[in-house]
Amino acid sequence: MRTGGIYNNMKKVNVLIVGGGPAGISAAIWCKRLNLSHIMIEKEETLGGQLDQIHNKIIDYPGIIQGNGKEIKELFISHMQQLNCNYLCGFQLKSVDVDNRRAILYSNNISKSIEFDYIVISTGASPRTLGVDGELQMIRRGELYSASKHHHLFADKKVVVVGGGDRALEGAIILANSGADVTLIHRSNIFRAREEYVLPALEHPNIDMILDSQVTEIIGEGHVGGVMVKPFKGEAYYMETNAIFIRIGIKPNSEPFSNTIDINEKGYINVDEFGKTSRNNIYAVGDVCTEPIYSSISLAVGQGMKVAKHLSLQYQH
Ligand SMILES: Cc1cc2nc3c(=O)[nH]c(=O)nc-3n(C[C@H](O)[C@H](O)[C@H](O)COP(=O)(O)OP(=O)(O)OC[C@H]3O[C@@H](n4cnc5c(N)ncnc54)[C@H](O)[C@@H]3O)c2cc1C
After folding, report:
1. What is the pLDDT of residues 204-239, one digit of tens each?
2. Which atom of ligand 1 is least distant from the CA of 47?
3. 92 lines ligand 1 (CB under 6 A)
4. 58 Cβ inside 6 Å of ligand 1
5. In the predicted model, is pLDDT for residue 21 greater than 90?
6. pLDDT for 43-74, tens place per residue?
7. Choice from 26, 44, 47, 50 to test ligand 1 binding pocket (greatest atom count within 8 A of CB)
8. For a pocket test of ligand 1, which of 54, 59, 285, 290 has the largest count of ligand atoms closer than 8 A to its C-beta?
9. The three-state (H, E, C) secondary structure of the chain, written as one string
């Protein structure tokens, strides 16, 4: 468990931040700057959230050009540590009593009770899964690849990419350009991806398209060996593959709060311009309340700043 700051002594905080990605890190930094006592909890053993999944160069965050997300993550964490922000990794919320402003945090075998004035939810978003047999086993085996980072592993190999958006088609093109034999499986015959990806993918000699079809099972002992494909009109069949890249969008991590605050039909937490949810003392920032078209490191850290500034005003009356 990684920790920072003076968490052990804390029985009450102004702000309890749930989620240690860019939005939560920014909220913690701004809480520190504005003299709000705070603790940030992160369910994983390390901070950074989706930054770990960014294998491409980051060129769109002002003042910082980095080779990948891990590099920017290290800068963010170092910044937090230099300011002595308070955080606990490996912790989640077990329960929250919103009216009495008390939360129970838990780790493997440790529970902690903490009082708070405000909760800031910054739990971000995660890739959607297919929910088919064999998928969980594949994830547990660690067979999750990034097209931009791992494309060289699949030269001359068969790979399946599932999805019809930007990430699916861009991934298929990267893999195909590296010499992989790519089959793109999409449940529709209309692509959500931008034209700049659709045409090159359709014309690429290494990409086959199977449309109006779904992957219904991932098969393999010890590693992925094939998938079952079910066309909407037709019988399911087996297709050999060395890997499957599931690129069917992302889902906001709002589930733990769905009984407490208002969440829209797509799962995003409804917030006002300051990040306030349907409960007065619960706020949300970052990808958990932001549609993918706007999700970015810049917006997440901006929202983290705004919520902290807004909360600091509540102590000035
Ligand atoms: C492949 C890829 C490439 C990208 N490229 C770029 C780019 O080039 N430029 C750019 O600006 N953006 C990019 N993004 C988007 C950017 O990473 C996100 O917009 C940003 O990370 C959102 O920050 P966040 O803090 O809201 O959420 P996240 O980064 O998702 O962090 C949320 C954190 O909350 C934790 N958490 C979740 N549930 C709980 C819980 N119950 N209790 C405690 N902790 C919890 C998670 O473990 C995670 O650490 C990319 C994203 C991906 C996946």
Report:
1. 999 999 999 999 999 999 999 999 999 999 999 999
2. 49
3. yes
4. yes
5. yes
6. 999 999 999 988 888 999 999 999 999 999 99
7. 50
8. 54
9. CCEECCHHHCCEEEEEEECCCHHHHHHHHHHHHCCCCEEEEECCCCCCHHHHHCCCCEEEECCEEECCHHHHHHHHHHHHHHCCCCEEECCEEEEEECCCCEEEEECCCCEEEEEEEEEEECCCEEECCCCCECHHHHHHCCCCCCHHHHHHHHCCCEEEEECCCHHHHHHHHHHHHCCCEEEEECCCCCCCCCHHHHHHHHHCCCEEEECCEEEEEEECCCCCCEEEEEECCCCCEEEECCEEEECCCEEECCHHHCCCCCECCCCCECCCCCCECCCCCEEECHHHHCCCCCCCHHHHHHHHHHHHHHHHHCCCC
**Assessment of whether the complete model's pTM goes beyond 0.85:** yes
Quote the ligand 1 centre to 57 CA distance (angstroms). Answer: 16
